[in-house]
Amino acid sequence: xxxxxxxxxxxxxxxxxxxxxxxxxxxxxxxxxxxxxxxxxxxxxxxxxxxxxxxxxxxxxxxxxxxxxxxxxxxxxxxxxxxxxxxxxxxxxxxxxxxxxxxxxxxxxxxxxxxxxxxxxxxxxxxxxxxxxxxxxxxxxxxxxxxxxxxxxxxxxxxxxxxxxxxxxxxxxxxxxxxxx
Length: 181
Fold this sequence. Notes:
Elements: E1 2-3, E2 28-33, E3 36-41, E4 57-61, H1 69-81, H2 86-92, H3 96-99, E5 105-113, H4 125-137, E6 139-141, H5 142-149, H6 153-161, E7 165-173
Helix pairs in contact: 1-2
Pfam families: PriA_3primeBD
GO molecular function: 3'-5' DNA helicase activity; ATP binding; DNA binding
Protein name: Primosomal protein N' 3' DNA-binding domain-containing protein
């Protein structure tokens, strides 16, 4: 297992029976290292070890291996060619969202049109344009709305103050496997 801390070496860990079918080369795992728990990547499987009293792998991170043999080969080549630690090269070939232990989701603000259309006639031309963009999209991330319209959050808040739109947090999931088949 190559750990996500700069040690420039791999460590042997025991695969407990309950994780036997889940651990393969490229699997992200959580292991004990000293007094703390760290994340790492399985870089090889062996039937035996020269070390005694191996610590067990604590947990498998993610549903599938993210580091394919080709990606692992690339990381090893990078470490050798650029004279960097293998864990640094491995980190660089994985997106930050999938390197974390927790699932890839975050809470974002979304803007939705309220059913009430009273007060729409009192909007400025710019506010009306923004309102129509929100209306066309039904629900749109606030950051996306700001990018599309070139407006500020303050302008959108004015629409909320007039009770025409609602700004509310919503969980936005990110799927690191979205483009895979």
